[in-house]
Amino acid sequence: MKPFRLSRRAVLRGLGGAALALPFLEAMGCSKQSAPASEEMGRAAFGAEFPKRLVVLYTPNGTVPPDFWPSSSQLQNGEELSPILAPLKDHNEDLLVLGNVSALSAMKGPGDAHQKGTGQCLTARAMQEGDFPGDAGLSCGWADGISVDQEIANHIGAKNKFRSIELGVLVYGANVGARIAYRGPAQPLPPENSPYAAFDRIFSDLSASPADATRKTAQRRAVLDKVASDYDRLRRRLGAADREKLDGHLASVEEIAARLDRGVTSTSPSCAEPALTPDLDADRVANMPEITRLQLDLIAMALTCDLTRVASLQFTNSATTKVLSFIDPDITEGHHPMAHNGYVDPVNRARLTKISAFYAKQLAYLIAKLKSIPEGNGSVFDNTVIFWTNEHADGNHLRQNIPYVLAGSAGGHFKTGRYVTQARQVGHNNLLLSLLHAMGVDAESFGDPNYCTGPLTGLTS
Fold first, then answer.
1. Residues 164/156, Cβ–Cβ less than 8 Å
2. Quick check: 73 pLDDT over 80?
């Protein structure tokens, strides 16, 4: 009997032809036997090898250096991790903490420190002249080059439904501090703050009116109900391994949809039931943890379904004044002014450390999520690299020794579980070039060539 085969682009169809993509299945010719790790995974034809993926996480306002750097070059059991990196203890062997890498290109050119730091964190080129106002009477335009995520997307994402996906959490305004991804010079890509809009765009192609939240919820549910019948028919034709994967995939879709539908409910007898739409307010700071998890789950599923191979999540703006009191009620002022107050004061230092540790916890969540999704002999995480970046090293605009972290080996390219310090200060252009090489992109330089001397040493062996 001829074995059942699915095309790599197979989907479940909902109302109006809305598509819900499938994960990689053995029925698509992607079995454990035909999916060895390879340096060519980022460019390989599907069915022989799994693709590589890149995720960028951006957080603002630097860190607390004394509470960030590990105590040893070998991250063997997690005890070497600092207070900020402690949430990553379960994934210590998957990390590369990078020392003595500086944003040298961000020392010159138009703009204030935050503008240059944010605009160059992924482009590594000077800002253009322009009218975006900055501190001390300085100003600039948009970044003057393509960002590394988009350069990678041009090479590995051209055949995907989405070349890349840009999401945000509490990102506001159309300015330099609100953009990290650039298709090219002065071509910023805005991040999507709403997981509801992201879900509809990425997974169901629905055109619900933004003003009618109830209708959006009903449509979301209708799509999932409609694909259930297709799912049942397909499931009967699959092998045991594919059935298990498909069951898990649909359960994940249902779980995210349920969370999007759930919104806020009254849990106290003294509370009257509020007249709310099912949506969580993506602009409310208190909702930041749940919005973040939804965005990370959407990224994980989009990668799993091969709808995209490149994604980014920007946490707020550079120089953000958002008060992150959900982390600690003692945090009563904005992150940016707190960062400027420095870490000499032990109380302020403790609060800043908690903020940075919160971001590390979100990275840990994404790692665990990707590890939970089977792929070949391992997981989606095995073929992924996550780049955690910042525009500064600390809250007073230090751009030397920025706290860069890589998580994941990109299919075995990077040798992880280490804190690697460069012998001398090098530009972060070298780090971005290393990411290009990890994703199978043949390049000799990236960003401003004056600051690019080659890939970082010591990351692959």
1. no
2. yes
Q: Could you tell me the pLDDT band of residue 36, with boundaries at 50, 70 and 90?
A: very low
Sorted by sequence, the CB contacts under 8 Å of residue 212 that are 6+ apart come out as: none
Q: Which two tokens stand for residue 440?
A: 């199978």
106's tokens: 């961000």
- Interval 176-181 mean pLDDT: 96
Task: Read off the pTM.
Answer: 0.81
CA-nearest of 387, 369, 377, 412 to 90 is 369
Q: List, in order, residues 6 or more apart from 125 with CB less than 8 Å away.
A: 105, 143, 144, 145, 447, 448
| String of DSSP letters for 188-211 | EEPPB--HHHHHIIIII-----TT
For residue 37, the model assigns a pLDDT of 39
* Three-state secondary structure call for residue 52: coil
**Sheet of strand 165-169: strand arrangement:** 165-169, 310-315, 53-59, 384-390, 404-407, 95-102, 418-427
Q: For residue 378, give every residue at least 6 positions away whose Cβ sits within 8 Å of its Cβ, in sequence order, or none.
A: none
What are the angstrom distances between the C-alpha of 6 and each of 11, 42, 242, 412?
10, 22, 11, 28
